[in-house]
Amino acid sequence: MFFLSKFLPPLLLPPGLFLLLLALVFFLRRRRRAALPLAIVLVLSLYLLSIRPIADSLILPLENSFPHPARTSLNCDAIVVLGGGVLPNTPDAQGRAVPDPSSIQRAYAAFSIWRRMPVPVLVSGGSSQGERWTSARAIAAFLVDLGIHRDFQILEEESRNTFENAKFSARLLEERGSVSPCLVSSAYHLPRAVMSFAAFDVAVVPVPTDYRAYRGSYGWPHFLPSAHSLAVSNTALHEYLGILYYMLVHGV
User: Fold this and answer.
1) Separation of alpha carbons 191 and 25, rounded Å
2) Which end of the chain has fewer CB atoms at under 10 Å, N or C?
């Protein structure tokens, strides 16, 4: 089941979905009545998902699920940071693997909370690709550079997805008697993360970061297709697919 959860999304989401549709158009090229409508759907969907207004309309409902809390009002007995990934074979100045940009934003958000409220920081994130450096270990090293000593940190390196983040983190939080942890993750990812922790009876305080939606006024350049907008659309669709998968498979 885990293999399917990693294998199917690249085929069901852009750009993999577009490649499958393109292959189907090529296969049906001699049957014009079937190929032409499919080609139109392919071009139109690629354009729409590649423009800013559509990308924002997809990701904004996810990012707006939880308000950004005032850091001074937070009252947590632990801070949970979900790893977003690691860049293998890309050493930094200390010769280590580095967290990906999403993980760096999550780590800095956790650090800004910890500065005002020095509670234990649980860093959750394993490796689904077999890298030597897990996401948790890379983030933990970055947090040390920011000023959070390893004595304040708890590493969870078994998880391969968000549901396992919650499963293994819940166990560690229970061992330490935590009843009100802050949960730091990307704003678009928090809906799936919060529902995963709720499945293990952990009531978290969501702390969103790493926003992707554009919240300004649109001009004509925003209606030109771009790889960035397509990436935002892909991120949003991945989350919706993940939420559906967790509801159907895990019953969350």
Assistant:
1) 36
2) N
In a domain, 68, yes or no: no
Q: Are residues 77 and 170 in the same domain?
A: yes
Number of structural domains in the chain: 2
Q: How far is CA 74 from the centre of its chain?
A: 23
Residue 215 lies in a domain: no
Helices (H) and strands (E) in the chain, counts: 10, 7
Which segments in the chain show pLDDT lower than 50?
Answer: none
Query: Tokens 């590649």 identify what position?
Result: 50
Convert the pLDDT of each residue in 6-61 to its tens digit: 777 888 888 888 888 888 888 887 777 888 888 999 999 999 999 999 999 999 99
Whether the pTM exceeds 0.85: the reply is yes
Tokens 């935590």 -> residue: 178
Is the bond preceding 15 in cis, omega lying within 30 degrees of 0?
yes
Residue located via tokens 């934003």:
105
